[in-house]
Amino acid sequence: MTTSHATRLLDAQTVLVGWINHSATDCYEHTRSSGDVVNLGTDLDATSSFVLVASHPGHSEAVTVTLELAPLLADGTAGSWITAAAVAIPAAGGKVEAIISGAALLINPADSELITPPCLRLARAMVSPATPAGMTVALTANQGL
What we know:
It is a single chain. Helices cover 0% and strands 40% of the residues. Residues 1-9 have low confidence and may be disordered. The protein is mainly β. The chain is globular, with a radius of gyration of 15 Å. The protein has strands spanning 14-20, 30-32, 38-39, 50-56, 63-71, 82-89, 94-100, 120-128, 136-141.
């Protein structure tokens, strides 16, 4: 599917790391951890842009968050993971945002015969060296859309 205008595919924050409250889309409270795979239900490579939002209240050292995306293959498994963004938050804490262009995301050539773009709908956030208490990592629509 090709579109000539921006398509808003993420309407609210999708939590990749952190606490999730009971809502219409999550029927129970739970916590997602670093490396948990989330099926977004929408293809990020079909968006003009989206935003990675990461924050924590403070930690003993700086924290790096790497957003990785993978295509969902026809058999329901994940294709090859690609790095879409990486951000750092100082030990003192804070919030950072990274705008990511969906059109600029490139699928691993090894997956090209196994998928039909758009297809990048699996996401995970890798936090290192450790996940601070109170950390949140999420994806959301770019407000400029």
